[in-house]
């Protein structure tokens, strides 16, 4: 079963420095029918104005993945980690027993766009950890690149959950194939452009859930260049 989550149905948060779209319920946006999907709890598409950002705030018992799409991001946390990330960089935080962090756009002129993803961990009260890595455009050009996984396979970033995230930048009329294991759930989120997923058309901001399916998943580029994520998740009821 394929179920579209259209971009205009997402929740919104807008301030003088942030424009954010929420695929699932988050903060002041509540939708009882979109609380998450398997262990995937949050996909926020955040655009941060120059010199704007999230002040020091707390998290616990969540695996947080941030993917920089455009611009730069300055990360600081109470574990002593400081980092400047740019487009193509991915960072993972195990918030575990508790961590404070801030995320800022250090530019005076350019906007920053990130995808903020929360995944429920397999255990609570883990020791907080942080790691970041750059994934080149070439590594995901017209192919699926594993960027996050439980075991850190293929030089991906590790999280504490049986979940995998793949990213692809695909050209028009190119197709990538993914063999869907049985007893899994899948989510695809379009970052840029437009793609066709087994006869379903998705545009930037759209998502699609895939449940009770197996076999070959065909993902074709529709726009000149499209960027998307593919999540492989446990077959939970949510």
Q: Give the percentage of residues in beta strands.
A: over 45%
Oligomer: single chain
- The radius of gyration computed from the alpha-carbon positions, rounded to a whole number of angstroms, is 17 Å
* CATH topology category name: Jelly Rolls
**What is the share of helical residues?**
under 10%
One letter per element, helices H and strands E, the order comes to: EEEEEEEEEEEEEEEEEEEEEE
List segments where confidence is low: pLDDT < 50 over at least 5 consecutive residues. Answer: none
Q: Number of domains in the coordinates? A: 1
Number of strands: 22
How far is the N terminus from the C terminus? 15 Å
Furnish the topology, listing elements before pairings:
Blueprint: E1 2-5, E2 11-14, E3 18-22, E4 40-48, E5 53-59, E6 63-70, E7 72-77, E8 82-86, E9 89-94, E10 99-104, E11 112-119, E12 129-134, E13 145-149, E14 157-158, E15 164-171, E16 175-180, E17 184-192, E18 194-197, E19 200-203, E20 207-210, E21 215-221, E22 225-234
